[in-house]
Design goal:
Length: 115
């Protein structure tokens, strides 16, 4: 259950980070063949996906270290996550010295802590 929650959080974090400032380029890869093709062509999409997933995993690890329990709505979307993280950053400028993964973890906990 805990691994599933962290995996889901990492997925949403990756989606949100890819969309963050890069929405024009962050087009979903329909399968591994297309993803591999983009990587072989050295397109920015390949690096963005890899970095997004990496930051998503880091956010999950940050949440685990901090003891955060997050209950996301079942219908949460990547664009909603994107807006929520942007709002958190605007409302908490004192946290902007944190790594992106930590900011996402704090935002998720702030808005969606399990009650």
């Amino acid at each position: 259950m805990k691994r599933l929650l962290l995996a889901k959080l990492a997925s949403f974090a990756a989606i949100g980070l890819i969309a963050f400032g890069l929405s024009q380029m962050a087009i979903a890869h329909p399968n591994g063949i297309t993803f591999a093709h983009n990587c072989n062509l050295n397109t920015p999409r390949c690096a963005l996906w890899m970095r997004g997933v990496t930051i998503g995993i880091e956010a999950g690890q940050e949440m685990q270290r901090a003891g955060y329990r997050v209950c996301l709505p079942r219908d949460m979307t990547g664009p909603q996550l994107y807006l929520m993280v942007r709002k958190f950053m605007a409302d908490h400028p004192e946290d902007l010295n944190e790594r992106p993964a930590a900011l996402i973890a704090h935002a998720l906990h702030h808005y969606y802590a399990c009650r």
